[in-house]
Amino acid sequence: MRPSHPVRAALSLAVLLASGLGLATSSQAQAATPGAPGARTLAPDTRFYVDPASKAAQQALTDLKAHDLAGAKAMAQLASWPVAQWFNGTATPKETTDAMVALQAKAALARQVPVTVAYNVPGRDCSQYSAGGASNSTEYAAWIDALARGIGDHRTVVILEPDGLALSPAFCGGTAAQQQDRLAEISAAVTRLERQRGAAVYLDAGHSTWQNVGTQAQLLIDGGVANAQGFFLNVSNYQTDAALTRYGTLVSQCVWYLQNTPGATADSCANQYWPDADADAWYAEHVPAGAKLTHFVIDSSRNGRGPWTPEPGKYTGDPQTWCNPPARGLGTRPTADTGQALLDAFLWIKVPGESDGSCTRGTAGPADPEYGSVDPVAGGWWPEQARSLVADAAPKLTFNTGLFPQH
């Protein structure tokens, strides 16, 4: 039987996406000209880069070849939305520059702004599932320089080192010297990247159930947030938009307070565990209404259903609620039109469908008891998870109509 018109359209899009044909063009520039006043702030009509050869697009073609029309449609819908491009330090500096140059060329052709992730700081992820990174500070600085040279003057969002501050050495058994090295590495990276006039750099601020507001604010200050566009929240996590927006606002206010109040310390700031009214009253008293506050972005790639809470008593060990939790969904679609002054954008930074790692939830393993099988390694493509994220998306996933040319 011939597929219905909507399904035929979806399959046609799947083929176009997976074959690498660029669909996204526009007759109008979608962001401020680099170098112009306010150029580092994302304009509400910014259009982020959609990779026509993404893993989701490739999966759409695979499903189509297998005559799985529903699967092909779901993956084509996912592939139509912009997702960050990760640079993991697995190439030489020259290869890193060349890869960034190639990305910039594709994004420029589509008149879109790429969202990139720099993920190569020494000792990243506290040597856990995503362990790796440059071998020392000198090597890391050279890699950041290579990345920056590839960016050139192009408008680019740079998500600098997920977990780089919230999970810095001080919070996983590292020495004071290692902590100081990490802060210096991040700060130097900000300074180097921000020399590229189109780069908008955001620093790691964890998420709303992690570091205390004051602790995170001080980490951002020490990491050079004053020289960056702002900070990012919720990368590879599942906290709700509302909780993250409130937390980000409190962190931003605390950053201002610490930077502008002699003798202030991190534990002075009202935090996310205070009653809302009390915290709001504290900041109203200590931060002027017209204060220039730090901006932030939110990763909404997998938080459509919020965080996962296992059944009571199901696990006696660590349930690893952050690691491939079941029945989550895609969240708010990527956009810079947030309607909120401090929130620059919702972005899909973690690639939907890539595993968080091989989770065992405190059991002997090796299988993940939530799935009855061994999860792919961190960053490994997991078609079943991708389909689950689409099925549970909130709001329901549709095609990104902004892909198509505007006349």
What this model shows, in words?
- By secondary structure, this protein is an alpha/beta fold.
- The chain has 10 helices and 7 strands.
- The protein has helices spanning 5-18, 55-65, 69-79, 93-110, 137-151, 176-193, 213-222, 241-260, 276-286, 383-391, and strands at residues 85-87, 115-118, 156-160, 199-204, 230-233, 295-299, 343-347.
- Strands 1-2-3-4-5-6-7 form a 7-stranded parallel beta sheet, with helices on one face.
- Strand 1, helix 4 and strand 2 form a beta-alpha-beta unit.
- Helix 4 (93-110) runs parallel beside helix 5 and helix 5 (137-151) runs parallel beside helix 6 (176-193).
- The longest helix has 20 residues, at 241-260.
- It is globular and about 65 Å long.
- Residues 1-7 and 18-38 have low confidence and may be disordered.
In short:
The protein has 407 residues and is α/β, with parallel strands linked by helices. The chain has helices spanning 5-18, 55-65, 69-79, 93-110, 137-151, 176-193, 213-222, 241-260, 276-286, 383-391; strands at 85-87, 115-118, 156-160, 199-204, 230-233, 295-299, 343-347.
List keywords for this structure.
407 residues, alpha/beta, 7-stranded parallel beta sheet, globular
